[in-house]
Amino acid sequence: MIIGAGVLSMNDAASKYLAESYPMGQVLALRQIAALLMILAYVWWTDSWSDLRINDRGGQAWRAVIHVGSAVLIIWALTLLPIATVTAIVFSSPIIVLIFSMSFLGESVSWRRWIAVIIGFAGVLVIIRPGGVGFEWALLVAVAAAFVSGFRDLMTRRLSRTDTSISMLFWASVLLIALSLLTIPLGWKPLTLTASFWFVINGVLNAGAHFLMIEALRLGDAALVSPFRYTAILWATATGFLVWHQLPDTPTMIGAAMLIASGIIIIRRSAK
User: Fold this and answer.
1) What phi, psi does 108 have (nearest 5°)?
2) Secondary structure (3-state) at 96
3) Which of 22, 58, 152, 182 is at a distance of 20 to 30 A from 99, taking alpha carbons?
4) Alpha carbons 86 and 79: distance in angstroms, whole number
5) Which domain holds residue 8?
6) From residue 247, how far is each of 135, 153, 206, 236, 238 by CA, in Å?
7) How does pLDDT run across 182-223, given as a tens digit for each residue?
8) Angle between helices 57-80 and 24-46 in degrees, nearest 10
9) Given this model, what pLDDT does residue 133 score?
10) Which of 1, 2, 26 is nearest to 198 (CA)?
11) SS3 helix, strand, coil % of the chain, rounded to 5?
C-alpha cells in the first residue's frame, strides 16, 4: 500500500508535468491508452478474460462516467495547484463516502464516525480557508474532485457485489479514452520523443498504482492496510518539493493532518 501510494503520487506528478505542455484531453487519452495496454497484458498473462464480463450494465456505465469526471477534475486541479495540496484535498473523499453510504448503501453510521466526519470537514476548511487571504477559486476544483471521487468509490463498493475490480478498471478506461479522443479537433500537439516516453511511464504508473492498492487490500486486513494510503500526502509533498520546489504552507499541513486522522478513524470504525 505504501509503494502503491508512492506510485500514485508519481503518476499525478507525471500528469501535472505533461499537462503543462499538452491539452488535458490529450494527456488523459494517451495516459489511459498506456494504462489500458497494461491492464490487457495482465488479463492475458493471468488468462482471466472472463473477469472483464459486465454483470451490472447500468452500474458499470454510471461508475465509468463518474470515473471520467474524477480524472478530469484531478488533472485540472493539478494544473492549477501544488500537487501536495491537491492530494490532501482529494483524500477527503472517504468522508463523502461515509456521509452518503447511509442512503446509497443502507449502512449505519455511529457517532464516532460522525465525529471523524466533522474533523475531516474542518481539515478541508483549514486547507481552503474560504474568505481568507490564502483562498483561491482553484481550490474548489480540488474539492469538486474529492466529491466526485467519493461518489466513484461509492459506486465501486456497490458494483463490487456483482462485478470484478479489473472489469471496473477496464471499462472505465475504455470510456475515458473514447471521450478524450473527441478532444482531438480542439488541438492536440505533436509528440516529442521525450513526451512519448513520459506518456508511457504515466500510463504504467497509473495502472501500477491501482493494481498495487487493490492487491494490498486483497492480501491484508483492510483496517490495517488502508490507513497507509495516506502516505501519498508525504510522497506528494516530497515530489512537489523536488520537482517544482513547492512546499505546502502551515494551514495546508494542519488540514492534511486532520484529514489523515479523520480517515483513520473512519477506517478503524468501519472495520469494527
Assistant:
1) -90, 150
2) helix
3) 58
4) 10
5) 2-271
6) 17, 29, 24, 10, 8
7) 999 999 999 999 999 999 999 999 988 988 887 887 777 766
8) 130
9) 58
10) 26
11) 80, 0, 20
Domain count, the chain: 1
Give the span between the Cα atoms of 110 and 205, in whole angstroms.
Answer: 37
Q: Identify the residue with better confidence: 27 or 152.
A: 27
Give phi and psi for 123, each to the nearest 5: -65, -40
**Long-range contacts at 101-107 (CB < 8 A, ≥ 24 apart):** 101/154, 101/157, 104/154, 104/158, 105/154, 105/157, 105/158
- Rg (C-alpha) for the chain, rounded Å, is 18
Q: What cell was used for 135?
A: 483562498
Q: State the Cα–Cα distance between residues 159 and 166, nearest whole angstrom.
A: 12
| For residue 75, pLDDT beyond 90 | yes
Cα–Cα distance measured from residue 106 to residue 126, given in angstroms and rounded to the nearest whole number: 31
**Nearest-angstrom CA–CA distance, 112 and 152:** 24
Angle between helices 165-181 and 24-46 (to 10 degrees): 150
Q: What is the pTM of this model?
A: 0.88
Judged against a pLDDT cut of 90, whether residue 73 lies above it is answered with: yes
Rounded alpha-carbon distances, angstroms, from residue 29 to 39, 149, 182, 197, 200 = 15, 19, 10, 15, 11
